[in-house]
């Protein structure tokens, strides 16, 4: 799945939004947008009246002596998907797009968002709000400098600004005689009041031992051992990404859409384990599982989620050094730790350890991909029969594949919102159909399905593109070039510790060769029942180097605006490569097991090496998925699988050219044998 | 040429030293090194006695109230090659290696350098000096904190620390109660006194119009236009790299080895042009060429080189904004400009403009490469005849190729110290032979020649590796894989504005495939009678994106420690690519015209595409160099060229396998035609 939010954490949203080259937004029901220049202004019915809440917010700002207040689009953990009670920017503005920052002054209110959301913002915001078609902190600060007086204070919730974002605001405001003011009580929440959706409160559960790579005690010991080896000798690690705490303790919940996490922090010190979460959510079994009744170094003390800032501030009074991952720790934590007591790395040791799956985690992730392939194959077989009837649309299709996944063992829902896109919709970067707005699937169009599942043993993500009728020559060529890119990267042999960025162009070369390309990244890490976009693995410049045991998606694509979209995404394990001369080399082992669409492959574009790779992949699919289909009596699907994994032969050239090749061969023999 | 110093400026020295994976140093005459643990210490004759100069330096430090003094290895312009009068670290320590920082306290003195130079340092330094086998500022500061008392001052010459280096010292010392103190009078120079070699004082000359891409007036107007377009509206650009001033005014001199530059700065403002250099070096013709008698916006005012700091400080008092390239501007300039008056980019607009050659500059650079090929071919032909006689060694060979280049039209000497390396010496990263220490060339060994010339029209750099006898199968395989890497990158089609880093792995893939690799970068920019390593073009992560009109070297290699080294380096122009579907795509046009060694090519490893590329390249060489050889009656060389550019045919497999292929072909025809 290639989306705006790479990684569990959306800190890359801008990068990806840009990479897509400002694609057009999905059709949101026409161009019925506000017009604030008429008197009275024209407002579509989709607009939210924000006058009352803005007035209330300005009262709160006055109480705090603020000239401006920043309302970001994040939550306190930089989650990729955020809960309804964290949708502050959406609530105060009316604009529900996933990316965009609001700033309110005593006289004006404004939103900054990227091109994907301009129309949506004009349909959802009333005339209290200016729309600024820019991103980043610089244009916001430029605007602030003209809008607020010298000496003015700019308030923000320190738990909603990352360290980097805070630094960029701070730098831009330096010397301007305007001051950033950190206010821990969120002013929007005060105004939102009782209307604010409640914070999720479902029970937190432990994974069964069968689904974990190590016990939480082993993981804790491993992190402590890294603390000891670190040259700056940190006395504690602070975990502020939800996936870090979920991974460390093998605990899960469902606070966040698509991610099985719960709101939490962990302060793991050399002598204690402090888990900050809502205490009431732990059953007595879980409390016992966590040794929470004792106070030794292997006992987990549960403290209230709301106490994290105060507790860290208190801990930081001692002779301590706190290790944090700076990419996803919020300023609200950072500002209470004295600089000389901080040990900073881009990613915490938990993030780094989690990135490399041990052999049990590898086996679990692979097993989930076999079952996931069954669900996708069932859906593809079903589509093949039903699309020609004209009764399938993108939305009902998405529902069905989600249902098939739900029927698989250990299923825990989809791992992201299914992208089910037919024809021209597949060329849109962030398209997902709705019940109201969708397109019928047809044998005359290509269809792109990008979907994945959460299973107790693993998280999956796969994209296939199919055509049930007669694709055009260009569609076949583009599809085959995307496929070649997938193969060229998947079979690449590269030195250990090579960064993904250095090799991702192998997924593009076959497209570049013809003047084609795609505007998104080439892949992302994936977790064991964790994030579908798991940092820090992948092919972007801020991903860490590849290592044995990592899993990454490989997903080149091609998008023809207004016509069709192609993406072929597999998940692959990084494994050791055997090379002719000894050395530490790696390659990929693909663990997604759904055949590509033969109807779209132009075999004449494939080299013998591509064909060999493809036929070996087919063989693997047969071996992995075939028995599973048979075991479950899915005989129609089994037959389909056999058909779609028949070895491909080199294209048969016409007889004339074979004859000429024969002549050449014969001549060559004659020449060279003399 | 792949060296430690990428770019005219050596700010990447550490990166490259690391990339080479700590190769063993060249043999410097055995392991006759100092032993400071005996009493009296053992000192080889190569050691320099530094007691007197150290005492004098400490007196100067005392006068300035310093606890420590830093002596870097750079000059004030971060030149790749530095003049003798700037060899302060070498003079005070005795250690002449090109990389290494010295620090002197009142009691101790120490040098930090990388593994290339450890033995050399132990042979050249007396026991006044500790040797620290580390690099970077962190170990230096760690040492300083134990060696100097709290409250102590660490002095440095602000013209010898880049902004980045100063920042890293400053950051590491923060909160330590030790202070960095900028001292503009260099203390080593005070001690060095009259023994210090004089600053070069040769006349500065203007390039003839035939050898320039634009007049200096056009270049000045172009930079001013970029100032106007810049959103921060700088009022001036400060040029502190020598190549910037040389390029801007089309002026040259010979202050620096291998680089035709003169010590200078330029402050180009919106209304004036101020050139800081030694006034006495300009003839009346040059003064007139520069319009130096007037004071208008297109008149060049010459000010004394030593005045630059004061003049910039005075200029910065006004309502101005000064644009600098932060990668190569020294702290001594930076510290006198108030932060709010700085406009910073990694590279100045001059660096960015110079990186893209206009059509005349392209033609000039290409022409210099044709003549350069003649010199190299003359040398290769001569070697072919003389190596079997056993009379050629690495040093005399290097002298000869330099001589042949010197006989070419417009020659202005070599563009770097010729790397002429036979057998195992070619596996060393920084090997150059000397008159005393060199190896005989032999038909039993491979020979690597990495050399280049300065010509009035262009700078060249080419590497060829040859074998006059019977190479081993492994040597042929490694050579052919290096060649494939060169071809795969050279013929790659990629989108405009792709960074070199994203595509350089294409030069490595064929090696990786077999478990082989090389430890240096894949290429660097090159100038028109400027730097042989011209920033900011190339394939490293800090190079800028590729654009039409840039020139870069492409130079994969393979090094077998203790046995042989292979490198195949060409210079290539970035040109527009014609793609099947329209788009903005680029590719490379190789402008080095010396055939590869057929004796080392294993044709069976080449694909039909590689053969096609190679044969087209051969054809180009014949067209470009053939007529030049004929015109100059170099008939033996012409004949050699024809032989070495005969089209290569696909390898003839043995008859048995051809027969079986015939059977397969026939069967295929029978099968597919039914």
Automatic annotation (TrEMBL), chains A, B:
Membrane topology, from the record: Lipid-anchor; GPI-anchor
GO MF term (any one): metalloaminopeptidase activity
The encoding gene: XPNPEP2
Catalyzed reaction equations: Release of any N-terminal amino acid, including proline, that is linked to proline, even from a dipeptide or tripeptide
Required cofactor names: Zn(2+)
PANTHER family xrefs: XAA-PRO AMINOPEPTIDASE 1, XAA-PRO AMINOPEPTIDASE 2
Domain Peptidase M24: 365-575
Locations listed in the record: Cell membrane
GO cellular component: extracellular exosome; plasma membrane; side of membrane
Full protein name: Xaa-Pro aminopeptidase 2
Keywords in alphabetical order: Aminopeptidase, Cell membrane, Glycoprotein, GPI-anchor, Hydrolase, Lipoprotein, Membrane, Metal-binding, Protease, Signal, Zinc
Signal peptide per UniProt: 1-21
Domain Creatinase N-terminal, residue spans: 55-185
Pfam families: Creatinase_N (PF01321), Creatinase_N_2 (PF16189), Peptidase_M24 (PF00557), Peptidase_M24_C (PF16188)
Annotated Peptidase M24 C-terminal domain residues: 585-648
Recorded superkingdom: Eukaryota
CDD domains named in the record: APP
Predominant place of localization: membrane
General function of this protein: Membrane-bound metalloprotease which catalyzes the removal of a penultimate prolyl residue from the N-termini of peptides, such as Arg-Pro-Pro. May play a role in the metabolism of the vasodilator bradykinin.
GO terms classed as biological process: proteolysis
Enzyme category, top tier: hydrolase
EC numbers: 3.4.11.9
């Amino acid at each position: 799945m290639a989306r705006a939010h790479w990684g569990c954490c959306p800190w890359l949203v801008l990068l990806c939004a840009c990479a897509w080259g400002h694609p057009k937004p999905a059709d949101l029901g026409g161009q019925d947008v506000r017009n604030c220049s008429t008197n009275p202004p024209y407002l579509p019915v989709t607009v939210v009246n924000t006058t009352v809440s803005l007035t209330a917010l300005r009262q709160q700002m006055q109480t705090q002596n603020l000239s401006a207040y920043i309302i970001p689009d994040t939550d306190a953990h930089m989650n990729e998907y955020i809960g309804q009670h964290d949708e502050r920017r959406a609530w105060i503005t009316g604009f529900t797009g996933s990316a965009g920052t609001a700033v309110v002054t005593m006289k004006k209110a404004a939103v900054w968002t990227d091109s994907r959301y301009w129309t949506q913002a004009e349909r959802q915001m009333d005339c209290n709000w200016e729309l600024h078609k820019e991103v980043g902190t610089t244009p916001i600060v430029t605007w602030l400098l003209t809008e607020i007086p010298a000496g003015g204070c700019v308030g923000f919730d320190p738990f909603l600004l990352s360290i980097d974002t805070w630094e960029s605001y701070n730098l831009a405001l330096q010397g301007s005689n305007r001051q950033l003011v950190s206010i821990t009580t969120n002013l929007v929440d005060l105004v939102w009041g009782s209307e604010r959706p409640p914070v999720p409160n479902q029970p937190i559960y432990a994974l069964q031992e069968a689904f974990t790579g190590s016990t939480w005690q082993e993981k804790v010991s491993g992190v402590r051992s890294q603390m000891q080896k670190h040259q700056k000798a940190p006395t504690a690690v602070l975990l502020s990404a939800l996936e870090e705490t979920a991974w460390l303790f093998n605990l899960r919940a469902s606070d966040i859409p698509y991610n099985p996490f719960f709101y939490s922090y962990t302060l793991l010190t050399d002598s204690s384990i402090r888990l900050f979460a809502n205490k009431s959510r732990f059953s007595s079994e879980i409390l016992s599982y966590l040794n929470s009744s004792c106070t030794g170094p292997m006992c987990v003390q549960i403290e209230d989620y709301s106490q994290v800032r105060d507790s860290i501030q208190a801990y930081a009074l001692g002779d301590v050094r706190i290790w944090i991952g700076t990419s996803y720790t919020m300023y609200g934590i950072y500002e209470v730790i004295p600089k000389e007591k901080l040990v900073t790395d881009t990613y915490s040791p938990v993030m780094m350890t989690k990135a490399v799956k041990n052999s049990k985690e590898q086996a679990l992730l692979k097993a989930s991909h076999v079952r996931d392939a069954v669900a996708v194959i069932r859906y593809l077989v079903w589509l093949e029969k039903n699309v020609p009837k004209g009764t399938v649309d993108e939305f009902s299709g998405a529902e069905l594949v989600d249902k098939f996944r739900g029927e698989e063992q250990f299923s825990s829902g989809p791992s992201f919102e299914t992208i089910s896109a037919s024809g021209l919709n597949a060329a849109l970067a962030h398209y997902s159909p709705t019940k109201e707005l969708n397109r019928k699937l047809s044998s005359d169009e290509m269809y792109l399905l990008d979907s994945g599942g959460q299973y107790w043993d693993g998280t999956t993500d796969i994209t296939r593109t199919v055509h049930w009728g007669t694709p055009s020559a260009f569609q076949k060529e583009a599809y085959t070039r995307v496929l070649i890119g997938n193969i060229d990267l998947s079979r690449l042999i590269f030195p250990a510790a090579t960064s993904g960025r250095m090799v991702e162009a192998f997924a593009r070369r076959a497209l570049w060769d013809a003047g084609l390309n795609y505007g998104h990244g080439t892949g992302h890490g994936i977790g064991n029942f964790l994030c579908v976009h798991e940092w820090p693995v992948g092919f972007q410049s801020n991903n860490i180097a590849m290592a044995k045991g990592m899993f990454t998606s490989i997903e080149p694509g091609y998008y023809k605006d207004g016509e069709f979209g192609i993406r072929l995404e597999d998940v692959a394990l990084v494994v050791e490569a055997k090379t002719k001369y000894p050395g530490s080399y790696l390659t990929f082992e693909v663990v997604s097991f759904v055949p590509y669409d033969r109807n779209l492959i132009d075999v004449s574009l494939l080299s013998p090496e591509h064909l060999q790779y493809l036929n070996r992949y087919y063989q693997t699919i047969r071996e992995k998925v075939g028995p599973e289909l048979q075991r479950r009596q899915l005989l129609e699907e089994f037959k389909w699988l056999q058909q779609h994994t028949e070895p491909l032969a080199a294209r048969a050239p016409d007889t004339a050219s074979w004859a000429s090749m024969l002549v050449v061969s014969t001549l060559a023999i004659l020449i060279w044998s003399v």
